[in-house]
Each structure stands twice: as C-alpha cells, then as structure tokens.
C-alpha cells in the first residue's frame, strides 16, 4: 500500500459515555503507536468529548470531534450545541450532514451548508458526509444526488476554504447494514466528487473518506484505491482492540 496520508475516523453515535470513552482511548492508544501518515479521528457523543480530549492528550495523531453542531454561535435552541461550546469541550472537528442527521432528523442540504460555513468560520474542521439512498441508487440517481449535495457545499464556501474540509462518501444503504460499496463503486463516486470540486476551482487535494459497513475484512481493498483517502466507521470502531487492529492493517 502507498504511504499517502490516511484518516481513520470512528463515529461512536450514542455509544461510550465519559467513563467508557476514557477507558477505550487508554486501551486503544496503548496498542496504537503514532504514525506520521495516519490520523485517528474520534466522534464520541458530545458528553464524552472532554473525556476523549483528555485521554488523548499528547497524541498529535488523534483528533476529537463532535457528531453535530448548530450553525448559530448562540441562541435559544434547546437541545442543540453551538460550535463554541463543543470547541470549549475539546472538539477540533465536527461531523456534518451524516446520513442519520439528514434522513432521521430531516437535515437539508441548506442546513448542512450553513453548518459547513459556520465550522469554517470558527476554525472547527468539518468532515461532511454525502451519499445516496438505496432507492436513489436503484433509480440510477447516485450521480445526480451526490452532485447536488456537493454543489450545496460549494455554494457556501470559497475554493481556498476547502483546504480545511474533509469529505466522506457514505452511501446510506451501506451504513450499519453489513453491505459495503465495492471498491469500484466507491472509487467512481469519489472520482465524481473530485471532478465536481475541480470544476468549481478547488485545486487542493480534499481528503475523501469512504464509510458504510467498513470492517477488517474489506478495509484494505477500499484503501487500495487511490481515490479513497481513509474510512469513516461506526460499528467496527466501538471496541478498542478491534479498532486498533483495523487501523493497523494498512500500516
Ligand atoms: C457511520 O456511522 O458513519 C457508519 C459508516 O457506520 P457503519 O460503519 O456501522 O456502517
């Protein structure tokens, strides 16, 4: 495998409160040495961000992020978290537009774009997710949907801002289902995304991760494609030894 820089991102969803997050990272970091060409990102539940940040202190290869934020820096939005709040807790990144936010909570392209612009303005690194549903794929609309989602992002920030953005292609039908996109499918959509970025003047190499039922058995085939700059993983990131093994496979 080439030695380009890879991002391994763990999306813990509603798993691992502060104690479990601390214990996870203590074990995981004990068995995972820093590597110059590998970044390890963790998206714990918001209540565990500070614990994760503290547990990873001194490990520059680890980035802790929030799973969601509101675009407004403050205001009467009960139950929401602002960017300043999650940054104070220790978040350096934020997951934006995860398909569970889009499809279970009705987040629109417009809201995703606002969150992206707010993150860029505040210095929080956004990892923005795009991807089609099963019905959209089966209806031959994958390109159309992903192009639309990426255009909504391009409309919000300028070409230079993209130096601080990470994208994740996550086909909705592959998340938590055990069905992953083939490396060819992933590479094709990543290529499309990169084409759209280039067409709109984004010249730098924006990392594009693949996510959707990534595990120890399929990760190397996905990362073997030069279009895939890392992986965003839910289920297979929840146990420290298994996650350490997965991130070690590409070393
Ligand atoms: C995710 O939550 O972003 C994800 C890809 O989950 P899983 O790896 O479980 O499919």
What would your notes on this structure say?
Helix 1 (18-30) packs parallel to helix 2 (49-55) and helix 7 (142-154) packs parallel to helix 8. The chain has helices at residues 18-30, 49-55, 83-89, 99-104, 109-122, 134-138, 142-154, 183-199, 219-223, 240-249; strands at residues 6-11, 38-43, 62-66, 93-96, 125-130, 166-169, 208-211, 230-233. The chain is built from 10 helices and 8 strands. Helices cover 39% and strands 16% of the residues. Helix 9 links the parallel strand 7 (208-211) and strand 8 (230-233). The chain starts with 5 loop residues before the first strand and ends with a helix. 42% of the residues are buried. By secondary structure, it is an alpha/beta fold. The model has no long low-confidence stretch (mean pLDDT 96). The chain has an 8-stranded parallel β-barrel, surrounded by 4 helices.
Secondary structure blueprint with pairings:
Elements: E1 6-11, H1 18-30, E2 38-43, H2 49-55, E3 62-66, H3 83-89, E4 93-96, H4 99-104, H5 109-122, E5 125-130, H6 134-138, H7 142-154, E6 166-169, H8 183-199, E7 208-211, H9 219-223, E8 230-233, H10 240-249
Parallel strand pairs: 1-2, 1-8, 2-3, 3-4, 4-5, 5-6, 6-7, 7-8
The protein binds phosphoenolpyruvate.
């Amino acid at each position: 495998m080439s030695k380009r820089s890879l991002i391994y991102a763990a999306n813990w969803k509603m798993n691992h409160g502060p104690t479990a997050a601390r214990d996870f990272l203590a074990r995981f970091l004990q068995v995972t040495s820093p590597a110059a060409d590998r970044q390890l990102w963790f998206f714990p539940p918001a209540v565990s961000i500070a614990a994760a940040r503290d547990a990873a202190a001194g490990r520059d290869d680890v980035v802790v992020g929030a799973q969601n934020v509101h675009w407004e820096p403050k205001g009467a939005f009960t139950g929401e978290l602002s960017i300043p709040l999650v940054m104070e807790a220790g978040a350096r990144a934020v997951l934006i537009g995860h398909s569970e936010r889009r499809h279970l909570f009705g987040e629109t392209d417009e809201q995703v774009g606002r969150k992206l612009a707010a993150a860029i303005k505040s210095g929080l690194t956004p990892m923005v997710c795009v991807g089609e549903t099963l019905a959209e794929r089966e209806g031959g609309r994958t390109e159309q949907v992903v192009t639309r989602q990426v255009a909504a992002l391009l409309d919000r920030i300028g070409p230079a801002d993209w130096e601080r953005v990470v994208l994740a292609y996550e086909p909705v039908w592959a998340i938590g289902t055990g069905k992953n996109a083939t490396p060819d499918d992933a590479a094709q959509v990543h290529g499309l995304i990169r084409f759209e970025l280039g067409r709109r003047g984004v010249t730098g190499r924006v990392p594009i991760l693949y996510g959707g039922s990534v595990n120890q058995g399929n990760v190397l085939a996905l990362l073997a494609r030069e279009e895939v700059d890392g992986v965003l993983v839910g289920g297979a990131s929840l146990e420290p030894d298994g996650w350490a093994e997965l991130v070690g496979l590409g070393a």
